[in-house]
Each structure stands twice: as structure tokens, then as C-alpha cells.
Fold this sequence. Notes:
The complex is a heterodimer of chains A (121) and B (278).
Chain A: E1 6-9, E2 12-16, H1 23-40, E3 44-48, H2 57-72, E4 76-80, H3 84-92, E5 101-103, H4 106-119
Helix pairs in contact in A: 1-2
Chain B: H1 3-18, H2 20-31, H3 35-50, H4 57-72, H5 77-98, H6 101-143, E1 148-151, E2 154-160, H7 165-182, E3 186-193, H8 199-215, E4 218-222, H9 226-235, E5 243-244, H10 248-258
Parallel strand pairs in B: 2-3, 3-4, 4-5
Antiparallel strand pairs in B: 1-2
Amino acid sequence: MDRVPILKLGDILIISIQIDLDDQSVLALQEDLADAVVTHGARGVIIDITAVEIVDSFIGRMLSTIAATSRLLDAQTVVVGMRPAVAITLVELGLSLGGVRTALNLEKGIALLDHVRGATP
Amino acid sequence: MTVDADVARRRIEELLRENEAQILHRWTLIAKASGEELTEIYRALLSSLEHGSSDLADLRGLLAELSRARARQGFTPADTSRAVFGLKEALYEVVEGDGGPDAMRGFIWFSRLIDDLGLFTFESYTTARERIILDQAEQLLELSTPVVKLWEGIVAVPLVGTLDSARTQVVMEKLLQTLVDTGAEHAVIDITGVPAVDTQVAQHLLKAVVAARLMGAECVISGIRPQIAHTIVTLGIEFGDIVTKASLADALAYALRRSGIEVIAPRATRIAVRTENV
């Protein structure tokens, strides 16, 4: 089973999804990430889905779940790099990812996290 | 095919070949078309008769060409098919002169063939027209959905005309693609030019806004006219937390403020008036 690597940049964790996720690796990723947030005391999580071309409701829910979990652990989640086709699919599926912040690319995602933390120190 | 019918056909072929000049001349007069085109069609007709009537591909191609050319010149399809039917009249004069029973029987067969060809010109006219309409509809779809850049990081989609599912889909895709390409964080959907908003159109707009939001851009809907605002409220459509503005200017001002840009009017120059005691 492929594991998605979790990168640490300062107090931000970056996950770049480059593979086709199956249900097992999604579950593994959720657990790994929760562990990593606690271990590193991360304040922000960025999920980069630039390479993801196909999504289903399961992946949509994964994003919401990760966001909810991270918020419990006091980390903000930002999903970055969503492709137009993916956005349209999620909307058609009726998933609006409530509670998940989004940004156009990684750079803007990091800027957004800095901004949020600046507003609520 | 019976022997009689075969004989009749061959007789017509002979007549067509022998009296080519005369028939062509009459046909040109009746059809009011250029002699060259008709001669070409006539030749093709003759050669296809030689190879048996099943092989009409060449002839059909020529007729389709004629039909298209005449449609472009503004002829109605009825004119074109009448021109083809004119060949019957032209041939009839020759058949009458011949007077034989074979020729008469053959003429009936020939007339059916010409009827088919006449109808074919009609058909190709309609096909050509339909293709033009389809192309135009596609072009309209492309033309009517520009995404314009208002400011660094702010794009706008001025929508004009009635919105349906297909158009909204195109608009949505184009808008989202522009967001990716330009990295704009604010988008304005201006519906000043949309004559009516019903539940379906509103649904489509909401989807576009949510999709843009998923990608990390903020979307404002502007240009909502009073009647449309009234309709939206009457229909009970909830826009939720989506920002709506009355005009594009308001939306732009909002987007600028959100991206931290301040627009300041230059200070008015002071005019000092001094009164002098005379």
C-alpha cells in the first residue's frame, strides 16, 4: 500500500497527494496525519491536490474529516490546487466542504495560514 | 428488372445522349442556372446511367454542391429542386418528338429518378443549413462568455442573455480555468444582461460560486436588477452567505477592499479667493 508522505515546514504540515488514493490509503493518511499533528505540534495543515484528477464522495469526505480532526487538534486545514473539473464534480456531488479553507495554490495556502494566525494570535 | 423496362431505360439513355445539346439548351432556359454546372450534372447523370442506376455517388455529390452554392446565392431550396425538375420538361419535348411507347415508359422511370434527385437537393440544402445553425450556436456559446480581468487578482464574467444548463456549464468551466491560469482570488459574476432568473438559473449560479470557493477563490454576484431581486425573493431562493451586489462597480469596490487595495480620490485642488479693497 502506498503511503502519502507528510512534509513538515516550520509549524505547517504539507501533504501532496500524487497517487490515486484508494480507501485503505485514505484511512492510513488520516491516522498518520492526526499522529503527525500531535507529534510536531503543527498549527496548520495544507493538502495539495493539484495532481488529483478524479474525486469521489469518499475523498470529498476525507477532506472534511481531516479538516475536522485537525481543528480538534488546533490546526487549520487548507486545501490547495483543486482543479476546475474536480471542483465541478464535488459541487455536483453536493459536497461543499464546509469548514475547509481553500486556496488556489500552495503559496497562497501558506499566506492564508499566516494571515489567519496573524489575526488570532 | 423486366425486359420491357430495360428496353425503355436504354431508349431514354439513347435519347439523352443523342439530343444532349438540345436538352441541355432547354434545361438551361427552364432552370435559369449556369450552363456549365448543368452540363457537368448532365454528364454525371449519363455516366451513372451507364454504370447502372445504383451508382449515383458522383451525381449526388455534384447536386449537393449545386444545392449549397445556390443556397449561398440566396436561392430557396424549392428553386434548386425546381431547376432539377426542369430536366424532365426538357426531356419530355424530346420524348414527345420520338413518340414511341418505349420512350414513354422510359420517361416515367426517368421522371421518378429525377424526383429522387430533386428531393435529394432539398435534403442536402437542409443539412447544410442545419450545420450552419449548429456552428453558429457553438460560436455564440464561445462568444457570449468572456472572462475579463478587472484588476490584478480580480476577474469578472459579464453574462448576457438567457442562461441554460449548457451555457452555465461553459461559463463555469471557463471561469474556473481562468482562476487557475491567472491565480485570481476574486471573481465577479455580473448578471446585468440576464433577462430572467428562475430557480434553475439560480441553482447554476450557486454551483459556480461554490465551485470557485472550493478552488480557493471568492465569488461575488453583481448586477441584480430590482425585478430580479424581487423574483429571487418570491421564488424563495436562498443565496446563503454568497455576497451579492447591486452593480459591477460595487462588486469591484468590494473585491478591491477584500484584497486590501484602497482607492482614494485625489484631493480636490483648493481655490483661494481673495477680495481686494478698492
